[in-house]
Amino acid sequence: MGRTSVATAAAAAALLVLAACAALPARTAANKISINWKPNVNYTDWLKQHSPFYKDDWLVFYYTAGQADVVQVDEVGYNKCDATNAIYNYSKGRSFAFQLNETKTYYFICSYGYCFGGMRLAIKAEKLPPPSPPPSASDRSSAIAAFARSHAPVIYAAVAVLAALLRMV
């Protein structure tokens, strides 16, 4: 294979890889969200950092056995920190996994008295947004430029490897 055909093949392969990466959807599967379930944590800030939540995501609560529990309650139980009419109560072990299997708001509290100090979560599970439509012809160049800027180190490394390979031919 001549030097020109190797360069052409390598350039085509690099473009194919870049196109494949750019075409990947932002999100196609459920996430696992870890929650260090303990007193004296600002769960309002935690929600802002970890939102949005989608149907089929998994919440995994990690807590100290005997010092906390995870109680799913309705909105009234959440607002009053009352586990009397709990939907579900989990206190065994040191972790609890819960799937957000519907698009609705889920309410969780700790019934060991820490709820009044803020150890509670109201998580709204949303429908996963549809994938973005492919960019129009006018948007493609700006999308490629944005992709190149966000992936510059990887692209630079790929170009450096390609240049090294071409010097070997």
SSE inventory with pairings:
Layout: H1 3-23, E1 32-36, H2 43-50, E2 53-54, E3 58-62, E4 70-73, H3 75-80, E5 88-90, E6 95-99, E7 105-109, E8 120-126, H4 137-150, H5 152-168
Parallel strand pairs: 1-3, 2-8
Antiparallel strand pairs: 3-6, 4-5, 4-7, 7-8
Helix pairs in contact: 1-5
Quick summary:
This protein has 169 residues and is an alpha/beta fold.
Write a structural description.
With 169 residues, this protein is an alpha/beta fold. 39% of the residues lie in helices and 21% in strands. The protein is built from five helices and eight strands, in the order αβαβββαββββαα. It has helices at residues 3-23, 43-50, 75-80, 137-150, 152-168, and strands at 32-36, 53-54, 58-62, 70-73, 88-90, 95-99, 105-109, 120-126. A five-stranded mixed beta sheet has the order 2-8-7-4-5. A three-stranded mixed beta sheet has the order 1-3-6, with no helix packed on it. Helix 1 packs antiparallel against helix 5. The protein is elongated, with a radius of gyration of 24 Å. 16% of the residues are buried.
Supply database-style keywords.
169 residues; five-stranded mixed beta sheet; 8 strands
Q: In sequence order, what are the helices and strands, one letter per element? A: HEHEEEHEEEEHH
Q: How many strand units?
A: 8
Question: Helix/strand/pairing class, anyone?
Answer: alpha/beta
Q: Spans with pLDDT under 50 lasting ≥5 residues?
A: 10-27
Radius of gyration (CA) equals: 24 Å
* Neighbour order of strands in the largest sheet: 2-8-7-4-5
Taken from the alpha-carbon principal axes, the silhouette is elongated
